[in-house]
Write a structure and sequence with these properties.
Blueprint lengths: L1 E5 L3 H12 L4 E6 L2 H10 L4 E5 L8 H5 L3 E5 L8 H7 L3 E3 L3 E2 L5 E2 L1 H16 L19 E6 L3 H10 L8 E6 L6 H9 L6 E3 L11 E3 L5 E4 L5 E4 L11 H11 L3 E5 L8 H9 L3 E5 L8 H9 L4 E3 L1 H11 L9
Parallel strand pairs: 1-2, 1-3, 3-4, 4-5, 8-9, 8-14, 9-11, 10-11, 14-15, 15-16
Antiparallel strand pairs: 6-7, 12-13
Amino acid sequence: MRVAIAHPDRLVREALRRTLAGGSLQLIWSAADRAELARFGRRDPAELLLLDASMVGPAAEALREQPSACLVLASDDSTPGVFEALSAGALGHLPPPRLEADGELSGAARLLGRIQRLQALVLKPAAVAPVPPPREVRGECPIVALGASTGGPQALANVLAGLPQGLPAAVLIVQHIDGEFSAGLCEWLGGHSMLPVQLAQRGDLLQPGRVYVGANLGHLVLLPSQQLGYRAALPDDLHVPAIDMLFASLAEHASGGAAALLSGMGSDGARGLLRLRQAGWHTIAQDETSSAVFGMPRAAQELGAAVQVLPLAAIGSALARALPACRPLQG
């Protein structure tokens, strides 16, 4: 894979160069500022751009100008530009490697591992295991379930903005995101919603009118007790938490609700959305025009998992309207 670097810190650029030299990756150029990024990117587009969050800008112009896949480098979830970059289509984010005072390289293995996972996702989307038929278990709190990946933060913000205050359902969200950024995502989404947003914790009992966001404690699931839990992840799981795991648990243990699969690469969530439809949920897939990446919604449509295919601006209100009208799929 041909990789490029855009970072203003010379020591970070050197740490990235050494990291890439330790793997089977080709560094084609390194940019120190926005001007170099634009010039080098036009001359020789990379397959993967490692972009510092400070170069993204409020409107994510730098990212939109680049045809490359992109990983955003940020020290923590308070770094400006992180969620703007994810909304504009960045495939993920993580802290950059660094050179220690003794010259040792720290964080290189994590970056190389993330790039390998990204290559697997881009070149060969992970297969989703077949799910067994749902069994009927009545729950107590109606649920709105949302799954998103690439381009997801802005899509989620738009959907939450369309849900009314006092929604008679709990909202469960799985967004593919590194764990150290989950709390920042909750805070960021809270600024776009009339509903309170919090990280989902083990043992939480669902309350109507609240939003629960999955962390990287494992795969977020609903338990038979109607409490939230986390199922342990396997070493080769591509996404933790996974959308399919949440949707499958809801089909098995929740009484009904509405769900939407939003922008994202790959197919996570598509089979789970089908299972929800078969269990009587109202299911929605985001349309191609409004999706930053149309992979997951496309997979859902191809499976016949979506009752509706809607533009992003219409999904929030459609979910709210659908809550009282869930019916089992016939045939």
